[in-house]
Amino acid sequence: MKRIFYMAAILFAGLQPAVYAGDLDLKDIVSGKYTQKYQETFYPLSDGIHYLQKTPDKKMIVKYAYRTGKAVDTLFNAEKARECPFETFDGFVLCEDETKIMLYTDVERIYRRSFKANYYTFEIKRNLVKPLSDKGKQQIATFSPNGRMVAFVRDNNIYLKKLDYGTESEVTTDGSKNKIINGTTDWVYEEEFAETNTLAWSSDNKILAFLRFDETEVPEYSIQLFEGQCPQLTQYALYPGEFKYKYPVSGQKNSTVGVYTYTVETRAVKKMNVPLDSDGYIPRICFTKNPDQLAVMTLNRHQDEFRMYATNPKSGISKLMIQDQSKYWIDPDNKNYVTFYPEFFIFASEKDGHRHLYQHSLTGTLIRQLTKGNWDVTGYLGYDGKNEFYYESNAEGPLYQAVYKVDTKGKITKISTKKGTNSATFNPSCTYFVNAYSNADTPLRYTVNDKQGKEIRVLEDNKKLITLLSSTHYSHKEFFTFKNDVGIDLNGYIMKPSNFKEGEKYPVVMVQYSGPGSQMVLDKWAFDWEQYLTSNGFIVACVDGRGTGGRGEAFTKSVYLKLGIAEAQDQIAAARYLGSLEYVDNKNIAIWGWSFGGYMTLMSMSLSSGVFKAGVAIAPVTDWRYYDTVYTERYMRTPKENMEGYIESSPLEKADKLSGNLLIISGTADDNVHYLNTLQYSEALVQANKQFDMQIYTNRDHHITGCNTRLHLYTKVCNFLKTQLTNNK
Q1: Which of 255, 349, 475, 595 is catalytic?
Q2: Is position 702 annotated as part of the catalytic site?
């Protein structure tokens, strides 16, 4: 949940002017007229001087030179490939020796990240396409290092395809829906650990490791489905259907997870002996460069202790490599920083109060702390094979991100040149990187740079958008800092009406997400519903309160065991600060949010009186007892351990204290924040005799999209804001 709606583009339609009729048209924004252009994903090649990209028409894979940008070869062309049954493809994967490509088409989404597709292998030299399997769509197809085998999942079982012989064999046979999952992950791992693929090959191609989930005892959740119109599910025309899946709410039973290996030669499946509590987590596994060393990363259920084991796939014995503990929680993103090299690995920890990089030997012995300072590393980028490591950090301040290198003596050098938000993708040898840069006033600019940061050429500068913006009347972000009620500095931005006039007062819409580790106040380009509001006479403001990211462990984790309290207090303090400004109409301030932001809308309106004239809560959690184990217990532990904290953090328990006019919105088929949250909260409001507005969307999930849905949602929200903030001023 935590990162999906930080910058949700909720665009408001039908808004009558609070002050005047603005220049911007909703249809233009919705159609993407002001959307910045992104680059297709880069696939660096091992030669260090070329990379691959899919063409925008999804028909070809082209090889480009980093330095010149020239297309030097076309590796795949759907119109010219032999026996190619498709005209376009959705994505591709290159095998390690770069002789084969795996393409996939006909993607069928499952949850947020998971999907089924028809996979095809393509031999570059033979220009030949072959289907991976003809027995149904596949998931997470994964090349062996030598490219001669592919492991994949179908119907919760793992299969192995030997490409040289064309044979397909079963690795597991016990997979069963809502019971046993092999190779891929259950719902809560996918949502909260951002993992869907647990297949891991040994470097010698002999062993395939994977996770097995037994979710038999996990409580089952049922979502009703109705006929609807877009799409129209005619089978439910007279009676609703249902979708059932395993969803563990806080305090309930999780899947039991185990590590297994499959030996290709003998076809033997073996369970590894990994020390783990029965209710613990294994968020990631991967082989080191040593084929006899499988790295298994574990978390206890409280998620305050991380361990990584070196497991021998032959003996099944595990040895502890590294351990990290916190008096709060371990950031789940830290697992993604773990990177193995032949003689050492990189690890990320917040043990000194900020996330920093550490270099360890393959036995786990600390070699050195690579980065230090009162700032956070925000991404690990690579190692040049000699003595320099590359990373991203916010050392310039929590609003910014830049690219750096550090050598083994601790010398740090900034290599990105522009202040704002920089994100880099390096080739394996770290001789070139592609930098994506933007700031609050500059759309994305992609450049190719050498390892010293020197710009070699521009890939994309969004000139067309910049030209369009030069003739568009729109608002710019002004960053500010103020002190909350306990004297802590909080960062925010404000966007004034694009026809702002001194001496006038304007209504305010506060936008926020506020979830643990999130950030919305960043020096980064965005052009969305905020601009539409400011064009129509509203002030838009945003504040990152306690619990948000980029400011070290103490700031982010100060909300531990009492989620929602300090965050709401900071939004209330922000509203009061804004209300003190001479150009703000302090009697007409609204707060808006989606998902955690919707939850925060309810908490803020319940812990204040008369501060917020109105609020919009979209897909909100209304009681943490309704949300999943991994996310909720990371911050709150279980209800049994912390019932007082759950009650204090519950809008449901505070329904009678709601102050201001509320619009609550939800989709009936939300698999993430269940419709139950909205139903229970609305009933509590009814019994508290609190009037409110409500909008429900049939068969829509957490994103509430599809056909005319978003436009209808925007119209509903903007009409509500117009009525609440601009009428009877």
Answers
A1: 595
A2: yes
